[in-house]
Amino acid sequence: MTATLDHYHARMQRVLDHIDRHLDGDLDLEAVSGVAAFSKFHFHRQFKATFGISLHHYVQLARMKRASKQLADGQGVSVTEIAMDAGFESPDAFARAFRQRFAQSPSRFRKSPEWEPWLAAISPLNAARSKIMQETFTPDQVTIRQVGPTRVAMFEHRGDPETFDVTRERFIAWRKAAGLTPKTSSTFNIWYTERRPANPADYRMDLCVGVSADQKIDGEGVREGEIPGGRCAVLRVTGDTHNLEPAALYLYRDWLPASGEDMRDFPIYCQRFFLDTPEQGTAAELHLPLR
What we know:
Layout: H1 2-21, H2 29-35, H3 40-51, H4 55-73, H5 79-85, H6 91-102, H7 106-111, H8 115-130, E1 142-147, E2 150-158, H9 164-177, E3 187-191, E4 204-210, E5 222-227, E6 230-239, H10 245-259, E7 269-274, E8 282-289
Antiparallel strand pairs: 1-6, 2-4, 2-5, 3-4, 3-7, 6-8, 7-8
Helix pairs in contact: 4-5, 4-8, 5-6
């Protein structure tokens, strides 16, 4: 069974590799299904079942990701050329699609990219790629650190995870208005429930940004809070940090029972970081508070 599944995943991986190499070419259903030798009559369902998004959506995101990098690189390629490479008939159509997806115009992005909304929009692409490239963790990746307390501005999300984007947009807008960029101010997520609780209304998490002792915290939906200091088991994840539940499960299910440690009375949380080149994505360090 495992060998059969591995073979299936290898065929799907060929599809992703083909898309990466042929973003300028014909990537319709018939052409792509033939790469993995699957029937075109079933492939669109197979693709979505495997990766969580449709083939059309995946190709769109891949092309827009490349277009974004071309804009940010500042190598002199015109917006018209970038639009054509991304499969749009005109710069205006490209600009509308870019603004709708990334909440900023191509010209504004070229001048001063805002990576947070960009990463949020690209996250389905990263999540899709991780479906057949599951990361595994080992005990030597976990370190125990003494962490100091952190004063934070906190946005609470309570309720259905499907409405989380609204909370995130409010958080980003407040932080931007306060001048607290991801490069200068630490970003945290605190989880009180699993990622997909049986009752979606029970979902609960906090979005936080580290602030100085004299930073004023006011505005609708934001409050002052603190991430307490203490010993923590820390596991770093790079690449796709859209879904950190596998890493959290590893800490709870595998690492903790074997470690002999006891948990402290504070939820698991993570600190997020931009990698050296922001378009590469983010890294995240999960903190499991220990006694």
